[in-house]
Structure formats: structure tokens, C-alpha cells
Amino acid sequence: MRMLALHLAVLAGIAALQFVLPAYHHTNAARILVLATYAIGFNIAFGYTGLLSLGHALFFAGGMYATGLLIDQGGWQPWAALLAGPVAGGVLAAGVGLLALRTAGPAFMIVTLMFAQAFHLAILYWGRFTGGDEGFTLSGAARRIGPFDLADPTTRYGAAFLLFAAAMLGCLALVRSRTGRVLIAVRENEERTRMLGYDTFRAKLLALALSGLLSGAAGATYGLMFGYVGGSFAAIQYSILPLIWVLLGGAGTVLGPLLGTALLFYPDRLGLFRHHGVAVRGGGGADPPRPLRAARAPGSSARLRPPEPAMSLLEARGLVRHFGGLRAIDGVDFDLAAGEIHALIGPNGAGKSTLVGLLSGRIPAQAGTIRFDGRDITRLPAHARVGCGIAYAFQITSVFPRLTTFDNVALAVQRTGARDLAAATEAALARVGLSGEAGQLAGTLSYGHQRLLEIAMGLALAPRLLILDEPTQGLASGEIESFMTLVRSLVPEVTVLLIEHNMEVVMDLAQRITVLNAGRVLARGTPAEIQADRAVQAAYLGG
Hints:
This protein is of the alpha/beta class. The protein is built from 21 helices and 14 strands. The chain has helices at residues 2-17, 26-48, 56-72, 78-100, 106-125, 127-130, 153-175, 178-188, 190-194, 200-226, 237-249, 256-268, 352-360, 382-388, 405-415, 421-432, 447-460, 477-490, 503-509, 527-532, 534-541, and strands spanning 136-137, 144-145, 148-149, 228-229, 312-323, 326-337, 341-345, 367-372, 375-376, 390-393, 465-469, 495-499, 512-517, 520-525. The strands form four sheets. The chain has a six-stranded mixed beta sheet, with helices on both faces. The chain has a four-stranded antiparallel beta sheet with strand order 6-5-8-9, covered by helices on one side. Strands 1-4 form a two-stranded antiparallel sheet. Helix 15 packs parallel to helix 17. The chain is elongated and about 90 Å long.
């Protein structure tokens, strides 16, 4: 509520400026508000989702040209043509995203820039219709929407204010929503987001489309308000400028675009960025949903009974994965019974991490099949396997460092569709003993607590199979005891696949063990059988 009250107060102040500023400032203030809307759109893609696009001029100019051409050559009413601007920006962004998002890093930037440059060249080539680089002007009648004349500075200010207010409040609602939490998670740690069951491609496509929609709305409004549509708006500088604006003010804040625009606009009057300038306010973090307190709940320390025959939950047959000449996994058959703790061990380089990557979907299999609960999941991507009931805790700690502990777990909880997000999140934190750290940034937790947070995220997915990759690494002896108690409390409701180098933990926890060596299964059996196996002693235990 405090955050909403702050933003409403800012909007009230902006509305009041119309009665305070001299009339000749109304046009400049309107320009600031429209360009700040453009910056908000760019900020959704870059500041909140981590997508560095160099093609946003396409979306801004696309919205401007869609509106301008529909009025100038299509005979549309200005109000109808104005609605076409955001539609054009959103559609263009989605189309570009379908191709560009299949790349990453510099390649993504280059592809988006390529599309923007192609659009600019098309404007120049079809100059008979577009006016070329000089563009075209809109008549006074074309700038009237009902009784409102956008050529009037006061009306122009009101229209710009309404556009900016809608964009700012919409952005605030987005980043504080469950969808916004996912977008921020993609920015912070895309691989971890994927392993929580989210289709990160779709999330990034949504962010880019929303960004394009706002950019197109700003471009359409700008052209209609100032009566000019020109090819210069599609030039590369209008893709670079939003990046400068956002970096100057700080990515990932709601009020930043307005602040940066106001700070840069009047220097523009001196000729630095003539007539156009937008930026975002300082601070590198986002405005994530506010965390709630969590309560601590005791775990169970009951010992497990000897394993009994159980139905197979996961079956892998003939799995193969080679990396060049290295046969990391070479024809592995693997079975996991429902409701057991199964350990996977082997010397360094045996293929344990690769096998787990194949089972979880992080690494595609080159041959073989994987069935989970009777369903063939061999070709399913990692996020879809999470939906089937497989959760994975990374070998190297992978959390969202700039989100709170609460929000880290809430990302997993909301994937399950839980109605009471706060209660389910609190329960998962309590189960691993992190209730007291709910409001702490995950990046500030100790390494051991980050490992526990990883496990909490896995448990919050309500999985049928929980894969724990080196979970006791970095834990103190007391934390290891608590961890073992926690794992015992999970079965038989949850099946646990444990990859662990600590042999005391393995022999104490595991009901069955599979030993890998050189990409192949060396032995299978109970802890006692594995300890007595001479091949295992020679290859792994040193006996």
C-alpha cells in the first residue's frame, strides 16, 4: 500500500503541475511524459526481464507510422488510428521476439537491431507512401479526437498525463504480480527459473510484447500530439537512446523513467539530444512483491525402515550422451522406485552430473528413453518435466540473489497454483528452518543457508521426485544432521535421488545405491551390498 500511495502521490503532483507551470512549458512537459512512457516500455524488457534490445526504435516508430498512415492515407478517425499504434508495436515486438529470442546475448542485440534497421530502410525505400526520411505532417483536423484538440498545449498535456499514468500504474501492477515475479526471476537467473517449471521463452516473449505495446503507444501518441511522423524516429539512435536513459537512471524501477526524462529533457534544449530524452532512476534492483513473515516448524527425525519392493517411478533405458570423444553416459539403464531414497555415487568424472542432467531435462539425450510414472518424457524440456513432478536442486548454489528468501520460494509455490501463496511459502521455509530469514535477500544468506533455500524451492514445487545434487556441500555438521532428518521426513510421499560425495551421509540415508564409473553402471544394490562389492571398492572406495 505504501508503494501504491507513493506512486499516486507522484501522479497527483504531475497533474497539479498543469496549473503551476507557465503555459509555454506545457508542450515540453507533455513531451517528457510521452517519452517517459516509451522508457517504461523499454524498462519492462531491459530493466525487469534483462532483455537488451537495440531495436526498440522499430516498435516506437512502428506505432507512430501505423497511426499516421491510417489517418493520412487510410482516412481513419484519429481515435481509431491511435488505438492501432500500441497494437502495431506489440505485434512487431512479438514477431521480432519469436526469432530474436532463440538467440542470446550479443546475438539477440544484433537481431533486434537488424529488424529496426530493415524497417528504417523500408521507410526510405517506400518514400512515396511514408514520406521517406523527412516524413509527413498531420493536419489540424487529423489531431482532433472528438472535442479535444491535441494541438492545444493544455489538452496535449492532459492526454500525455493520461498515457503516462496508465503506463506507470500498469507497470507497477505488473512488477508486483506473479507474472512480474517470474520476469524478474528470468533477469536474475534464467536457468533456475526454467528449473522451477517456467517456460522462460514465453516469459521473455511476453515481456518483449508488453514493451513493444507501450513503445508503440508512445510513438503513436507522440506523432499525433505533435503532428509529425518521420523516418528519423526509426533510426538507430532511437534504439540506443532508451538504453542510455535507463542506464543513466538505473534499470528496474517504476518512477525512474519519469525522473530520467525530466533530468535530461532540458539539457536537450541545449542541443545534446534535441527534443528527445528519457531516463530511469537509480537503483539496480526491481520492486518485488513485499515479503511476509514465515513461521518455523519442527522437522521429523524418524529413522527409515529397510527398503521394501515398490513400483518403479522412473525408468531409463539405453541412455547415451557423448561430448565429442568423451562418453559421459554410455548405454545406462537406471530404475528409481517410488517412495525411496536412492543415492547415485561414483568417482569424479563418472558421469553422475550428466545422468542427472538427462533425467531432469537440462541435457538432451542422444539415444535411449526416459519414462516417468509410465509416461515417456525423453523429449520433454526441463520446465515441462517440472510440471510432471520432477524437482532439481543444483550442485552449485543457484538462487535469485536480489530477491528475498520469501520471493525465491514463492516463485516455486506459485508454479503449483497454490491458492494461499503466503501460507505455502511460509510452510516450505519452515520445513528447512529458514523462517527467520524470509525477508532477507537471498544473496546475503550464508552458503549453507543458500543450500537449504535450494531445497526449500524444490520442496515448494510439491514434487514426486526430488533430485538433490551434492546437497550437503558447504553445510556444517549440525546442518548436515538437520538435513538428513529433513530428507527422511520426505519419504514415502516424495522420492529422493541423492548425488553425494559424503559417504557417511549416503550410507546413512540411502535405501538403494547405484554406482557409476566411466559413464556406465558399475553396481546396484543396498548400502551393505555396495560396501561389499569388490568392483566398487577397487574403482571408488579404494579397497
